[in-house]
Amino acid sequence: MAKAGINDAASVQKAVVHSAVASAALALTIDVLVHRKTPRESLTTA
Questions:
Q1: 44 has a pLDDT exceeding 70
Q2: What is the largest CA-CA distance in the chain?
Q3: How far apart are CA 36 and CA 38, in angstroms?
Q4: How far is CA 25 from the centre of its chain?
Q5: Cα–Cα dist 40/17, whole Å
Q6: SS3 13
């Protein structure tokens, strides 16, 4: 069925969720690894 272009909705949904979780985990890991002594100043001044 995949050769005919027919996708199973459950497998597509599983792939989407897996990709989203992997992306979120990568973003959290990078956020933890990039640590600054002093935080950057905000672009907006109040």
A1: no
A2: 59
A3: 5
A4: 7
A5: 33
A6: helix
Place of tokens 């990709």: 19
Predicted TM-score of the model (pTM) = 0.56
pLDDT of residue 33: 73
pLDDT tens string 6-34: 778 888 899 999 999 999 999 888 877 77
Tokens at residue 44, please?
């907006």
What gap in Å lies between CA 1 and CA 7, rounded to an integer?
Answer: 7
Round to whole Å and give the CA distance between 10 and 44: 45
**Residue 13 confidence (pLDDT):** 93
The structure tokens 């100043």 sit at: 41
Given the structure tokens 């050769």, which residue do they identify? Answer: 3
